[in-house]
Automatic annotation (TrEMBL):
The chain crosses the membrane at residues 6-24, 31-56, 68-88, 100-120, 126-143, 150-168, 188-208, 251-271, 277-296, 308-332, 420-441, 453-470. This is Transporter. It comes from the Bacteria. The keyword Heme does not apply. It comes from Paenibacillus chibensis. Keywords: Membrane, Transmembrane, Transmembrane helix.
Length: 471
């Protein structure tokens, strides 16, 4: 397939490079994203008014796309407030303190629990299920909030999602595009997922410990602080706690855990995934918030329910405010561009990002080593829209292209492209994609992306080298 790149493609690519450079340097990207949207709008519509309108419309589009995540985070934070003020969270996490006694055990323990949970129910619901419970334990034993976010993020959105061995959504998409059986792609991905997971998590942990030892660690806390006793959306400690009898507190802690366990069982029995699974967790959290608020605050319960929800939504939108502009720009790389500016791309186009990926594959020589490198780079580029899944079909198609030319390694190349796309776009490097873990831990998604950058890039490099030997 031949794609003719236009000025829109080149301008989009130029802004991608600029934005990523700013993210690496920890500079704010809002103005550059708005400038990028305006530039694309002028090229697409030819009018200043269309370009200016495109800025607002792209913000609306991004907000709609992110609304489910905003809602679940806001509701979980609101529920966490009442659990912490009543001390129920203390009763919930007490049994776990016997196992997570050191920062290292907390990092690896949270990561492994997140990985196993994500295999069955995908990472976003898993973050909601375990984040609020395990974070206070991790902080109590000395693991920074950002370290806990890294563990949940790398093990869940990285290792678990890139393999996706239980739900099998990712390997099915890539296998279908490459014309291969799903089983062959999954089998080929096992050594690559293991290498990527080990290299990335070990590197991240080593860098964290080194920076903490040298005093150069930045925890990136924003808007929310966990002191082990109180969780506040404005970062201020709330000392007004509600005293409940020990038996009542312990009983409610057990009920909360059982309700979320029932959610897990329901997800498995009813085969709920993605948004459906997240909705179940969110609805359960709302019911828990209402019931405990009425019990704890009695006559003031009705007003307190609203207050907690307001607190949660203030937190949610405060966290997402700096993310919406950059998400709006990157969403233009996919279907959003046509939705907002009309059909101005070439007829054969499948979106700006996918067009760039195809053009890259068409511009390099075809052999095994170059095929592996190109599969990784193409997968990473298609992941820049923050989805991870939107471009993995392209990764499968490009793997098929190189395999046909070299007559080797179709399944390995397909798995490699899948891993690169999901690790970049599924929620470890793109700030708005990793918001669930960042928000639950109360850290900046941009700081989390920065901490993940070197480990993920090192992991992708090593994994690509391993893939070259496996082809």
């Amino acid at each position: 397939m031949v794609i003719h790149l236009t000025a829109i493609h080149y301008v989009y690519l130029a802004f991608i490079v600029f934005i990523m450079a700013l993210l690496i340097r920890r500079r704010d990207t809002t103005m550059i994203c708005v400038a990028g949207i305006m530039a694309l709008g002028i090229l697409a519509t030819g009018t200043l008014s269309g370009s200016v309108s495109g800025v607002f419309n792209s913000f609306v589009y991004a907000t709609k796309e992110l609304m489910g995540t905003i809602m679940i985070i806001s509701i979980i934070v609101a529920m966490s407030r009442i659990l912490i003020i009543t001390g129920i969270n203390e009763a919930m996490v007490a049994p776990l303190t016997r196992f997570l006694r050191t920062p290292a055990l907390a990092f690896w323990g949270i990561g492994i629990i997140m990985m196993v949970t994500s295999w069955f129910f995908w990472p976003s619901p898993a973050v909601a299920l375990i984040g609020a419970v395990l974070l206070p334990v991790a902080i109590r034993v000395g693991l920074p909030a950002l370290g806990a976010a890294m563990a949940m993020n790398l093990f869940g959105h990285g290792i678990a999602l890139s393999g996706d061995y239980i739900i099998q959504g990712a390997p099915k998409l890539t296998a279908d595009a490459a014309g291969l059986p799903v089983a062959s792609v999954m089998e080929a991905s096992v050594p690559l997922v293991i290498v990527m997971g080990l290299v990335t998590t070990v590197t991240a942990f080593w860098m964290m410990r080194k920076d903490m030892k040298n005093g150069t660690w930045r925890d990136g806390l924003v808007s929310i602080k966990s002191t082990g006793n109180v969780l506040s959306a404005d970062g201020k400690a709330d000392e007004v706690n509600v005293v409940l009898p020990s038996k009542v507190k312990n009983g409610l802690a057990l009920v909360v855990l059982l309700l979320f366990l029932a959610d897990v069982v329901a997800m498995f029995v009813l085969k709920l995934q993605g948004g459906d699974a997240t909705a179940l967790v969110g609805g359960t959290a709302v019911l828990i918030l209402i019931a405990i608020s009425l019990l704890a605050h009695k006559n003031q319960g009705l007003e307190k329910i609203t207050a907690y929800l307001i607190d949660g939504f203030v937190f949610g939108f405060k966290i997402f405010a700096p993310v919406i502009p950059i998400a709006a720009f990157f969403y233009l790389g996919d279907a959003a561009f046509t939705d907002l500016f009309g059909k101005v791309l070439p007829e054969a186009s499948h979106g700006i990002v996918n067009d760039l990926g195809v053009a890259l594959a068409d511009s390099v020589p075809l052999n095994g080593a170059v095929g592996a490198v190109t599969s990784t780079i193409t997968g990473a580029i298609t992941g820049l829209d923050g989805s991870g899944f939107s471009g993995i079909s392209l990764a499968g198609s490009i793997a098929q292209l190189f395999a046909a030319a070299t007559h080797t390694g179709a399944a390995t190349l397909t798995a490699l492209g899948q891993i690169a796309a999901i690790w970049v776009g599924g929620g470890t490097l793109i700030p708005w994609a990793l918001i669930p873990a960042a928000a639950i831990c109360g850290v900046s998604p941009f700081e989390l992306a920065r901490r993940n950058l070197k480990p993920v890039l090192i992991g992708l490099t090593v994994t690509t080298v391993v893939a070259i030997f496996l082809i």
